[in-house]
Amino acid sequence: MSQEFKPIDARHCYTCIQWDGQRTWYADKKVVKVDEKKEGQCRVFHKKVKADFQCEHFFPIR
After folding, report:
1. Which of 20, 31, 49, 60 could join 53 in a cystine, given CB atoms 3.0 to 4.6 angstroms apart?
2. pLDDT range class, residue 51, cuts 50, 70, 90
């Protein structure tokens, strides 16, 4: 598992509040530590999607 720091302004599932995958959010640094290839449950589509997936139903972490 290769986790990297990613900016929270990216419109990917790993920065969406509707994605239940494994990630660590650092609010003070405005980054997310995540493995982009890891899957998590999307509460919008009710299916497993990879962390780097993009969709039009994006709800950003604040």
Report:
1. 49
2. very high
Instruction: Give residues with Cβ within 8 angstroms of 30, minimum separation 6.
Output: 7, 8, 9
Radius of gyration of the chain (CA): 10
Q: What angle do CA 29, 58, 56 make, to 5 degrees?
A: 140
Mean pLDDT within 31-48: 95
Q: Confirm if 59 and 17 have CB atoms less than 8 A apart.
A: yes
For the sheet with 31-34, list strands across it. Answer: 4-7, 31-34, 24-26
Spatial contact of 34 and 51, defined as CB atoms under 8 Å apart:
yes
